[in-house]
Amino acid sequence: MLFRKGGTTSAILAVALLVAILASMNSIANHINWQTKVLGGYVNLGGTFLILSRSSTSITDSKIDAELTSLFNNITDVEYTLPQRVLTATLTTDSGNHTILMRGVEDVSSFIELRRAYVNGTSAKSEAEVNVGEILARLAAIDLGDEVNLTVDNTTLKVKVVGVVKTTTQNDAELIVPMEVVHHLTGNDGKVSIIEFTLKEDVKEEAILNLIKLLPTDVKVVKAQQLKEFMQDMNSQTLTFLNLWSIAVYAVVAAASYVVATRLITESSYELAMIRALGARKRLLFTLVLTYIAAVALLGSVLGVALGTAGTQMASTMLRWIWTSVEVNPFLELSQALQTLLLTLASSILGCLYPAFRCARKSYMEQPL
């Protein structure tokens, strides 16, 4: 009786379109997750680690004892150690003042060599000389041979740019200076920001466990260039956002079920009144409305999952025809499809509870025949 009403088809399509949005989002998210796992399996960037202060929130906040470097002198598993002091400074050039990151190292030449960098000019060798990254050089309009001023905490030092460095790393946006420059601007307090060290190629990463035992408790060791973990974290954040967005979709499903149930009760008031007049209990009316909404939600969710999955696959195929370099293979897992069906069903039932309960409480005398 209720399914003969004209709004049944539109109600099923409304639920189907909402579920199709969820299915398409999950399909794309599965593709991204799969690509992350595959790419993460290929990534192996070596055994470079950083020692920094445990309480620090950034490299510029970190301060550790420079004497820790000496702990690695007799360790054969370590290829090299590189203490660095990173701080924020004001760079004054002809183009104006620029807030920059300044990286102080003991030997600029060795640092540049370890970075496999290209240098236009020479390496800085005294507190009157600095090297500038090529990105910073463009931003601050610095040329080779320019004299610039460095200011840290009201202490200013004039230095000469003796080389422009290209490392294809974040160092290209920094000023690389000898440690003497840092000492002149901040004083020599025996502290550095980080100590970078690299294990030898034939040494497993588990070897750092023995190194950690030698370090004090107020420092920590982190691995540099954790691209795999970074990609997984980005993917996790994307999935979290999609899950939050799905809550809004399920809320709309519940609202749509409320509207459908209210419309159904209004349009079927005569039939429901007749059933009640014939002696049906209130529970039967409640069950009829609930069953109708559950059936609509189930049919709509099945159709929506099919439309969402097929739609994203068709769109990805058309995209490959237009741009052959683009490879997108969306797919939906069985567990995700079942979860979508159950949550849609639960949202629909939740949305229709109040109209169904209100319908069951009415007596047939209150309803127009």
Brief overview:
By secondary structure, the protein is an alpha+beta fold. It has helices spanning 8-42, 108-114, 134-139, 179-186, 208-212, 227-267, 269-277, 282-322, 334-361; strands at residues 48-53, 64-65, 78-93, 96-105, 118-121, 129-133, 147-152, 155-166, 175-178, 191-192, 194-199, 219-223.
Helix content: 40-55%
**Main β-sheet description:** 6 strands, mixed, barrel
Order of helices and strands: HEEEEHEEHEEEHEEHEHHHH
Strand content: 15-25%
Mean pLDDT: 81
What is the rounded Rg? Answer: 33 Å
What does the model show?
49% of the residues lie in helices and 21% in strands. The protein has 369 residues and is α+β, with helices and mostly antiparallel strands. The chain has 2 domains: 2-41 and 229-366, no CATH class; 48-224, no CATH class. The longest helix has 41 residues, at 227-267. The radius of gyration is 33 Å and the shape is elongated. Residues 364-369 have low confidence and may be disordered.
Outline the secondary-structure elements.
Layout: H1 8-42, E1 48-53, E2 64-65, E3 78-93, E4 96-105, H2 108-114, E5 118-121, E6 129-133, H3 134-139, E7 147-152, E8 155-166, E9 175-178, H4 179-186, E10 191-192, E11 194-199, H5 208-212, E12 219-223, H6 227-267, H7 269-277, H8 282-322, H9 334-361
Parallel strand pairs: 4-9, 6-8
Antiparallel strand pairs: 1-11, 1-12, 2-10, 3-4, 3-7, 3-11, 5-8, 6-9, 7-8
Helix pairs in contact: 1-6, 1-8, 1-9, 6-8, 6-9, 8-9
